[in-house]
Amino acid sequence: MSDSLRVGPGFSLADVDPASTPGFDGGKKAGARALAAGADELSDLQERLFADSLFGGRRSVLLVLQAMDTAGKGGIVRHVVGAVNPQGVRAFGFKSPTDEEKRHDFLWRVRKQLPPPGYIGVFDRSHYEDVLIHRVRGFSTPSQIEERYGLINDFESELVANGTTLVKVMLHISREEQKKRLTERLERPEKHWKYNPGDVDERLLWPAYQEAYQIALERTSTPDAAWSVVPADHKWFARLAVQRLLLDALRGLDLGWPAADYDVEAEKARLAAS
Amino acid sequence: MSDSLRVGPGFSLADVDPASTPGFDGGKKAGARALAAGADELSDLQERLFADSLFGGRRSVLLVLQAMDTAGKGGIVRHVVGAVNPQGVRAFGFKSPTDEEKRHDFLWRVRKQLPPPGYIGVFDRSHYEDVLIHRVRGFSTPSQIEERYGLINDFESELVANGTTLVKVMLHISREEQKKRLTERLERPEKHWKYNPGDVDERLLWPAYQEAYQIALERTSTPDAAWSVVPADHKWFARLAVQRLLLDALRGLDLGWPAADYDVEAEKARLAAS
């Protein structure tokens, strides 16, 4: 499944059907079963990653989630990442930058939230906002934005060199599905807090956002830090797809269990006598 | 159940049977079912807490876990706290203090890890180490330790005044159960990384630790920040009990859903036209 989601040369976002389920034959029920079946392996691999770090390993995994509003970033964090030990996760949501953050370069606040060795980091929005909303809204000049693609690639190369495996995911929903989900938020009082009038303002700029995503995906999908575009009109598929991407990333680290750095038999004897 | 676990006047740790299941009539299977049944409410209440904070609420919950090794602190984090959205959780494990931390007062590093409004914080070990291992091992003088009980009570009063609900839990296992669990770690190579020869060193000081706990529980179980002692020889019971304690704490906040601060009907019209 993962290969069919990867952004490579010639990629066109407009050609990805948000309602499709590439690489998976089943429907919603089979998808939920497959997600449940993968949860234990994900949890086990995270524990190996953590154990590895206690014995000097420097590896970590960073899941970067970008999407239009309502695409389901929060659901991914809860239903996919929620399967692993919370003590091994560093999840962070990036909001509009504070005044202090604005005084620094755009990667400053991102560096502070990077996962330590042994952890799975999750970014709900990220440094990519600085080439997405900034492009669409004109918060930065075209030359600033142009420069940022390169800065992002350099930054991510540095992360990879330091042991971080990047899993960059754009959740791709359709304009119609977004309307449905926003409408639901307005119709249910217990969902009102999730709705923001600004969501419609951004929605009205849909084509400009799609263009900004297309350019960002083209310019920053590198061999070491590839983007995956996950069709997200079906929440069950998006969750399964992100789980598979995380599983692939962790399997790729080929993590064993650390060997004891003490004398196991001697310890058994000490313990028995205690 | 929660009332029967609370540390009040005349409490005696030695009288708590680590294999008991106070306030729960069923066995392991019924306990697992009850835990699963409570997970959705816990998750729902945490979402309300988070929503509340977005609209100016200052409330948070802090779960403090203390225990002898192998008592199951990690399992609590994974199986109880794991039911809520990872983005609403700040879990932190306190290790031996670093040189920098040692140069500050003992609460300095703790203050840095407090949950922001809207979050559930989890401390795997805490400032209580400074009156537990410090007492047993003599890392601090008796007068320093004596002073700390008061400093801890003042600190926790301050947290409560600022909107934090404290859930302080000692997981109470028996010496025999600990031996069983440590033996298992030595017998299974994939568990070797969890074992530390120092665990047996501490184990040999069991009575001194029980005494240090007894004194700490007596001196720092205040009406606003009471301790609960959770019998933990049965993992399933300990998890259920901590879940109930968290549920009680969150229910006590009486959290509704925030009202919309925008015109719902006007937004429906804007959205429909978008």
TrEMBL record, chains A, B:
Coiled coil: none annotated. GO terms for molecular function: polyphosphate kinase activity. Keywords: Kinase, Transferase. InterPro entries: P-loop_NTPase, Polyphosphate_phosphotransfera, PPK2-rel_1, PPK2-related. It holds the Pfam family PPK2. GO terms for biological process: polyphosphate metabolic process. The keyword Kinase applies. It comes from the Bacteria. Residues 29-251 form the Polyphosphate kinase-2-related domain. PANTHER family: POLYPHOSPHATE:AMP PHOSPHOTRANSFERASE (PTHR34383:SF3), POLYPHOSPHATE:AMP PHOSPHOTRANSFERASE-RELATED (PTHR34383). This is PPK2 family polyphosphate:nucleotide phosphotransferase. It comes from Conyzicola lurida.
